[in-house]
Amino acid sequence: MEAIVALVLALFVVHMGLTTVGELHRSGLRLSARQDALLSLRTVRHVLRRELGHADPGRDWSVAGDSLSIRAFRGTGLVCPELPSSTGSVVAYRGERAPDPSKDSVEVTYSNGLVRHSDLTWVGSATGSCGTPDPSEVASLWRTDPPFGEGAVLARVFERGSYHLSGAALRYRRGGGGRQPLTPASWSDADTGWRVAGGRVAVELVPRTLAGGRPWSGFLAWLVRP
C-alpha cells in the first residue's frame, strides 16, 4: 500500500512538473510573438513614414494590391557649377549610403524648376570643397546618362523598389530580386494590408493569434500633399 501511495504521489509530482514546464514554454512563445509584433510595428512605422516623407505621391510612389512601389531616395547632393569638369558633374553629396551605379538613378532639379531623371553610370573622386563647409558632404564626380547639362542645381539619388505586406511580414524588393523580409513574420496575412481612403494611405497590422494584442492602424502619407 505504501509503495502504491508513493508511486501515485510521484506520478502526481511529475504531472505537475510537466504541466508547469509546458505552461512556461507556451508563455515564452506568447511573449516572444508579442515582442516580434511590437518590433514589426515600430519598423513599419519608421521605415515607411521616412520613405514616403522623401517622395511625392503619384510621381514617386503608388499603391496597388499588396505592393507599394516607390522611388526610394538614398541621398541628396548640390551640383557644383564652380568646379566644372569635362568628364562629368561635381556633386557635394550626403546620404544614408554612397551612390551605387549598379542600382541607382538620379533625379536632377534645374534652376528653372525643371525635373529630369538620369541613369548613374560612374562615380569617382573629385578635388575641391565644392564651396560647402559641411563635413558630412563629400565632393565626388558623377557621370550620368544623359548628362546633367547647364543649370543643374540639385541631384537626388534613388533606387526603384517596392514594399510588400506579405508572408506575415513587411518585405522590400529591389528591381527583379526577391522580396526580402524587414520584420519578423508576426501578422495575419488575411487582415493586414494597405488602407487607401479619404485621400491618404494608411496601414493596418493585425497580429497573429499567438501574439495577441489589438490591431494597429496608422497613417503613412497623403495621396495629395496638403
| Beta-strand percent range | 35-45%
**Cα-atom radius of gyration:** 27 Å
Largest sheet: 6 strands, antiparallel, barrel
Globular, elongated, flat, extended or rod-shaped: what is the shape?
elongated
SSE string, helix = H, strand = E?
A: HEEEEEEEEEEEE
Spatial strand order of the main sheet: 2-3-6-5-4-7
Q: Quote the distance from N terminus to C terminus.
A: 85 Å
The count of strands amounts to 12
Give the integer mean of the pLDDT values.
Answer: 84
Question: What are the segments in which pLDDT stays under 50 over at least 5 consecutive residues?
Answer: none
Architecture overview:
Helix content is 23%, strand content 40%. The protein contains one helix and twelve strands; from the N terminus they run αββββββββββββ. The strands form two sheets. A six-stranded antiparallel beta barrel has the order 2-3-6-5-4-7. A three-stranded antiparallel sheet has the order 10-11-12, covered by helices on one side. The radius of gyration is 27 Å and the shape is elongated. The model has no long low-confidence stretch (mean pLDDT 84).
Summarize the entry for a quick read:
The protein contains one helix and twelve strands. By secondary structure, the chain is α+β, with helices and mostly antiparallel strands.
SSE diagram, text form:
Layout: H1 2-53, E1 61-64, E2 67-79, E3 89-95, E4 105-110, E5 115-125, E6 138-145, E7 152-166, E8 169-174, E9 180-181, E10 193-197, E11 200-205, E12 216-222
Antiparallel strand pairs: 1-2, 2-3, 2-7, 3-6, 4-5, 4-7, 5-6, 7-8, 8-9, 10-11, 11-12
